[in-house]
């Protein structure tokens, strides 16, 4: 999956009358997630830990996620590298790449609580407990998902819970626990793994085009 992050900011600006958030250029952290989704087969419990590093200036975003879903452990590494328009995804020791478009905005970004609600409707018709800003959205295992983020300034760690209904029936619950710090302690996290550098091990898979609006930094 795509990775994930907590938005920190130090000031606000007004652009075309919309609130904007300015975030630190370098930060990293860890997120613990428990997601429970009710299906026809019963509850789907998904536990994961994500370690992420964000470099706004160099337009790089690295994330490693480990967890258990459907009783099966998994370990996935993602590296968004916008200067090369490439997303690297490493799973089971195999590296695959896909194209990305655009670039991360290096200064401020819209605080899109309406955007979050509107785009969540692509996957779920009802959004309960809306948040102030967006997170990462996409499709995993054929199911649309959305990680919302509730920013509370520099208060870290942060606990957040999100719930969603489909046809007035409680469908999913996500609990996130963040611990975030400024700065990057290990810049090598932005170096593609060896399996991505070695051409013979690099397989290109059509993940589709990943657009930068999926990342709100």
Automatic annotation (TrEMBL):
Stretch forming the signal peptide: 1-17
GO BP, one annotated term: cell-matrix adhesion
Listed InterPro entries: Ependymin
One Gene Ontology MF term: calcium ion binding
Superkingdom of this protein's organism: Eukaryota
A cellular-component GO term for this protein: extracellular region
Name this polypeptide is given: Uncharacterized protein
Protein keywords: Signal
């Amino acid at each position: 999956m795509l990775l994930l992050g907590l938005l920190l900011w130090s000031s606000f600006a007004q652009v075309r009358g919309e609130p904007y958030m300015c975030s630190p250029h370098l930060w990293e952290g860890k997120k613990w997630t428990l997601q429970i989704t009710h299906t026809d087969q019963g509850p789907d419990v998904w536990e994961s830990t994500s370690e992420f590093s964000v470099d706004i200036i160099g337009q790089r975003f690295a994330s490693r996620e480990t967890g258990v879903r459907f009783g099966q452990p998994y370990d996935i590494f993602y590296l968004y590298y916008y200067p090369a328009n490439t997303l690297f995804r490493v799973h089971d020791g195999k590296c695959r790449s896909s194209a990305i478009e655009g670039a991360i905005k290096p200064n401020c970004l819209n605080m899109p609580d309406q955007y979050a609600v509107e785009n969540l409707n692509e996957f779920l018709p009802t959004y309960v407990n809306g948040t102030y800003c967006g997170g990462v959205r996409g499709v995993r295992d054929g199911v649309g998902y959305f990680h919302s983020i509730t920013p509370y300034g520099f208060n870290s760690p942060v606990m957040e819970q999100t719930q969603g209904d489909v046809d007035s029936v409680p469908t999913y619950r996500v609990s996130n626990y963040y611990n975030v710090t400024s700065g990057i302690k290990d810049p090598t996290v932005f170096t593609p793994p060896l399996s991505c550098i070695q051409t013979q091990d690099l397989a290109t898979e059509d993940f589709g085009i990943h657009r930068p609006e999926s990342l709100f930094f």
